[in-house]
Amino acid sequence: MPKSYSRRQFLQASGALAVGAAGAGSAFAGSALAKDAKGDWNAGEVVHLLPAANHERILLKASFRSGLKDAPQLLVAGRRIKGHRSDTHGRFWQFDVPGLKADTGYTLQLADGKGKALCSPWPLKTFPCPDASPDHVRLLVYTCAGGHPDARGPGGMEAFRSLAIRHALLERGLAYQPDAVIANGDHVYQDQRTWLESSNPAIRKAATDFYQQTGMFDTSQPVLGTDNERILATLVDPQIAHLYGTRLRSTPVFFMMDDHDYFENDEAEENFVTFPPDHFDLSLGRTVQDMYYPEFLPDATRSLMLPGSNASDRAPQVSECFGTLRYGKLLEVLMYDCGRYLSLKDKHAGIIPPEAEKWLLDRTRQSEARHLIHMPSTPFGWSAGKWREWYPDVVVSDETDMAPAGAISQRFWGVQGKNLHLSTQKGKYMWQPGWFAQHQRIVTAMTGQKRPAVMMSGDLHATGWDRMLRSGDVDLSKNPLYLILNGTLGTGKAGWPSAARGLAPSTPTLLQLERNVQPVEKNGFSIVDITPDKIVCRLFVWREPDPFEAISSLEPYEVIEIPIG
Asked: In this structure, what DSSP letter does residue 491 have?
């Protein structure tokens, strides 16, 4: 396939090949196995495919309907790449393909150890070289896609959207044929202590009932090779493998991790502090990543010494927590996990470790990309009064304002009273002043750029945007920081901030935002178009009482244009 083809042209031209192979190959004779959403591609034995790509390498994560005794193969560019098993039973495999040409379309094919096709072939295209000058790239971005569809909140309330709703939202986003997908954290919701030890009896009962059906992890045993592995697949398959299936097989993905991906909510109480994650939670998070979705591929400007990078039990040189999406000289996206390496060192604390902060600051000041986007898993610009935020604000009511001063713990369903609002008049239990100090160093570097300062965040169950004009004593008015919440795919009724905490996401006390408009608590996603002269971000939202059928023709409710000059 010639390099001059765009990714969209390549996918269109490759479609006929995939359809023909599915119909003609004896491997699928009489098959009633799953096809993709449009019914024109035969998934065969494959349950899910999630590929990462840069300009020279592909890393593919895959799962199959049943365990494979012999290692499967990935056929690409005349090569046979032997799969590396990610689990005990041979259902999960990964394929690492280095040495590819930049900006080139490839046809991929999975086969078993004897060479028999396991699914139809499909196309995938590498990114342009870092020194290339592409004129356009399109991203599909969202957060909080996880959640077991059978889980329930207090009183049987819907906790997460059905897979049908999430599938419809994904299909609508993919209809725009993005060049890459960024899923910003919270791919899994299966909290342990924070559900089972909640101060709310209804949450404890809902969690207990659910875990009685699935089983509880034995924290004294390894994750793999014990019954923990069965429980893990039971809990996670619906949230990742069944959610994505093979929809993204031809679209490079970037999956960031956040708090729930370590099987806890970010909470601090007198009887427990959930982050940084303990050893077992960390093992759960790393195992899910290893089995289900790709790590970040290496980038020449990102040190292999960053925490969570170049581990001996991972593909060479990948990073588990800090990633780069580089699309020629047009775009650089810096993605960072704000959970795994959080520290509790008072004024010296950080939500990300010092090495990662240095990387962010260096790239912000030195990147030659036309556009630079920061993408943390914990948002700048708004607060829900949660513990692990950059800001010290807590949710209080008129009644708590009259209570004696002291530290307040902010838990799900934990704030009662009238006229709820954010306040810094009372301390937030275990909140670290070093977190905001780190925030200030990042916003200072971002506003100091000659290009627009842009940040797109995850975690917060809402959609919206604003511009930061001031942060504490940092004046950003000469180059305001664009803040965008890209939308939440899976949040159900129990998860909206106004339901869980009594207050919609609001502006922290220490910030001055230009619009000061509360984000919208609806499901959705963003389509982001980047050209040399501007970034255009289209925000899509949906929620009842709008009919389900409206998702298939959803149009943006807001369009943000960020010009380069």
From this structure: B
Which residues are within 8 A (CB) of 331 and not within 5 positions of it... i.e. 6 or more apart?
137, 325, 369, 370, 371, 372, 373, 530
* pTM (global) more than 0.90: yes
What's the confidence (pLDDT) of residue 443?
Answer: 98
Mean pLDDT over the full length of the chain: 90
Report pLDDT digits (tens) over 405-441: 445 555 544 455 567 889 999 899 999 999 999 999 9
From the list 533, 514, 527, 511, the residue with the least C-alpha distance to 560 is 527
Element (H or E) spanning 61, and its range?
A: strand 58-64
Kindly tell me the sign of the dihedral angle through the C-alpha atoms of 126, 295, 161, 375: negative
The per-residue pLDDT for 405 is: 41
Predicted confidence at residue 411, as pLDDT, reads 53
Q: What is the pLDDT of residue 175?
A: 98
Angle at CA 511, nearest 5°, toward 508 and 515? 95
Q: 26 with 44: CB under 8 angstroms? A: no
The owner of tokens 């098993």 is: 85
Read off the amino acid at residue 181: V
Topology classification of domain 7-125: Immunoglobulin-like (2.60.40)
Q: For residue 457, what are the β-bridge partners?
A: 485
Beta-carbon contacts of residue 177 (< 8 Å; ≥ 6 apart): 7, 8, 11, 138
Compute the 3-state secondary structure of the chain and give helix, strand, coil in percent, each to the nearest 5. 25, 25, 50
Please identify which residue in the block is written with the tokens 């390549």. Answer: 10
Matching CATH number, 137-563, of 2.60.40.10, 3.40.50.300, 2.60.15.10, 3.60.21.10: 3.60.21.10
What DSSP designation does 504 have? -
Question: The tokens of 16 are what?
Answer: 């006929």
Which DSSP string corresponds to 279-329?
HHHHHHHHHHHHHHS--BPP-TTS-TTSTTBS-TTSSTT-BSSEEEEEETT
Of the candidates 250, 326, 330, 296, the one whose C-alpha atom is nearest the C-alpha of residue 1 is: 250
Domain with CATH 3.60.21.10 in the chain: 137-563
465 CB-contact burial (10 Å; exposed 0-12 / middle 13-18 / buried 19+): buried
